[in-house]
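Before relying on records like the one below, remember that each one covers exactly one chain. Contacts with other chains, cofactors or solvent are not represented anywhere in the record.
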Amino acid sequence: MVTPNAQVFYFCAFLLETGMHLQHINRYREKVSETATFLLNRISVPIDTALIIGTGLGALADEITEAQILDYAEIPHFPVSTVESHTGKLHLGKLAGRPIMALQGRFHVYEGYSPQEITFPVRVMAQMGIRNVLISNAAGGLNPLYKRGDLMLIHDHINLMFSNPLVGPNMAEWGPRFPDMSEPYTPELRFKALELALKHHIQIHQGVYAVVSGPNLETKAEYRFLRQIGGDAIGMSTVPEVIVATHMGLRLLAVSVITDECLPDALQPVSMKEIVEAAEIAEPKLATLMRGLVAEL
């Protein structure tokens, strides 16, 4: 039996915890606003499109002209990339003649970052007035039709990270408490990407991206399971950013570079060096696609 004194204690503890959560989210909102203001003060024209560039795909950022390049460490409240293949630089400039913001490197759960820290740049993007987010990543191919160096246009995903950046108090001005996820990857942008791929003779698949926390690669049994539940590719990023972008009403496109073939009955060990090399081989195709999309937005 819970005594009246115990009830009062639990109620006070509840109020205290709720107050701490609200204090945390309010401080988080302040940080987003401060970072957005810092970046807006460095641009002369509005930017409506941003790139988030993944493993081995950073050379696309080098095509940005008239660029201001900032190390993440220079940006207030920004996380810092700790993965070797993620340069950790933010570019403000032009791509295909259009104003662009590009993140050359992202953040991951396996680095020890929380889902809220991982998606902090997306909140900042929305605060800056950005409406389109184009994402690339490196992924293992679960679909037996996919080959190393192929591109996969993500049309849906399966979240197996067992974490979500929307957990906690909801900021109504950012988005609804229960955002709909029936179509997180904007159909219009996917159709444009398919048209560009056809125009430039680029083979591109459409598939389901499964995400896990990492950092280890998966076992044969895990690959078999992921394929059986509908995954076409497997990675360790992107989905947290997609959830937050959807929450804030942004338009999204995401493309995976297939860096290794994850076929459980013919599985070969793979190194990070080989994964990065495969991403770099595929980069010209991805750059053509992203460049074309930016030009048409």
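Residues 226 and 239 are 16 Å apart (CA to CA).
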